[in-house]
Amino acid sequence: MNYAARTSHLKAEGAYQVLARAQEMEARGREVIHLEIGQPDFETFDNIRLAGIRAISEGRTRYTPPIGIKPLREEIARQASQRYGGAPIHPDQVVVSPGAKPNLFFPALAVIEPGDEVIYPNPGFPTYEAMIRVAGGVPVPVPLKEENNFSFDLEAFHRLAGEHTKLVIVNSPGNPTGGVMPMADLKEIAAAAQKFNFWVMSDEIYTRVAYDHASVPSIASLPGMMERTIIIDGFSKTYAMTGWRLGFGIMPKGLAKVVQLLLTHSIGCTADFVQVAGIEALTGPQGQVDAVVAEYQRRRDVIVAGLNSIDGMTCQCPQGAFYVFPNIKSFGKSSSEMADLLLEKAGVAVLPGSAFGIYGEGYLRLTYSNSIENINRAVQQIRGVVKGQL
Ligand code: PLP
């Protein structure tokens, strides 16, 4: 059987592949420390779970408008307008979806014509390249610069951007690096967007997971950018709701209408009781989010110090998300050889940087949404293997 060419480039996400191998080892009795999957290790907060349960009991189990229920879109719009400098945001600019992913894919389908160039971060979230190719676009990876906190290599960006650019994707704080893009870099990208008239997609799913009390700058808050920016955000990471599937996009009304049509004919709508739980997440107590972020920051400090104490490894201190992206180039092995070695010999599941694109080679991605005890054990075990094997 042959399948349509538009699917031939699709491959599984590295995290799921490594997880499957780690689980096989566990089934054979090996102990594995999981630092591969990018999801919070906390349970969804109680008030949110109860709101979801209550909504099911009250019969909130039917179809909703494909764009999402109005009270949720109103609350998202209200909070977004505060975050993006007070500019009014209309609820009709908000598109709710089951997880953030459909709000990456469908706006991409709505703006990319076959042959259009799309600049995206590399190393970066694998869905970007997948959706660009499915839409028939030409993926143009821009390298991230380790010494600039994994923000864009701006020289490369200026070489790659031009009249032929349809869309530029930014992701800050970023997966897989945890890097936060400084406002100065975003201003340069915004200036290029105005000059060459391209769209910007700003994936801000980790925006609340930022450290040292820093607030993460957004390209959407720059003058004139709201009308050409698609903001992607969601509940998965901030409220530990990965399995609930709830996310949203904020975009100009015209584009929101097109995306709503794509949702109508694909996913239909997002579960009503999940949206009710989302309202509780946004309007309920926020102290628990701050407490979780403070805990991540403690873990970040432990893992960064631990990895930097291993001879030959260097690890930047990320300002957001829950990933570190240590440089392993000095070991002379590919990132997937290193990840295999660490899984087999150290019993620590990590991802090769190459799972996030060509410029991820020479790095590993470790998630620190795990206990400090496990992080310390993982670092010890990695140190032992690195000393003995390399
Ligand atoms: N964007 C980035 C950068 C991510 O890392 C993820 C999930 O890992 C998503 C989007 C998708 O989030 P969701 O689970 O809400 O679809």
Topology order in helix (H) and strand (E) letters? HEHHEHEHEEHEHEEEHHHEHEEEH
Kindly, what is the distance between the CA atoms of the first and last residues, rounded to a whole number of angstroms? Answer: 45 Å
Mass-distribution shape = globular
Q: What is CATH's topology name of the largest domain?
A: Aspartate Aminotransferase, domain 2
> In the CATH classification, which architecture of the largest domain applies?
3-Layer(aba) Sandwich
Class from helix and strand fractions: alpha/beta
Low-confidence stretches: none
Bound molecules: pyridoxal-5'-phosphate
Question: Count the strands?
Answer: 13
Count of structural domains = 2
Average of per-residue pLDDT values: 96
Number of helices: 12
CATH superfamily of the largest domain: Type I PLP-dependent aspartate aminotransferase-like (Major domain)
Rg of Cα set: 21 Å
**Spatial order of strands in the largest sheet:** 2-9-8-7-6-3-4-5
Strand content is: 5-15%
Helix content: 40-55%
Question: Gist?
Answer:
The chain has helices at 14-27, 46-57, 70-83, 101-111, 127-134, 154-160, 183-196, 253-264, 272-283, 287-308, 335-346, 372-389; strands at 33-34, 94-97, 117-122, 138-145, 151-152, 165-171, 199-203, 229-234, 247-250, 323-324, 348-349, 351-352, 364-367. The chain has 390 residues and is α/β, with parallel strands linked by helices.
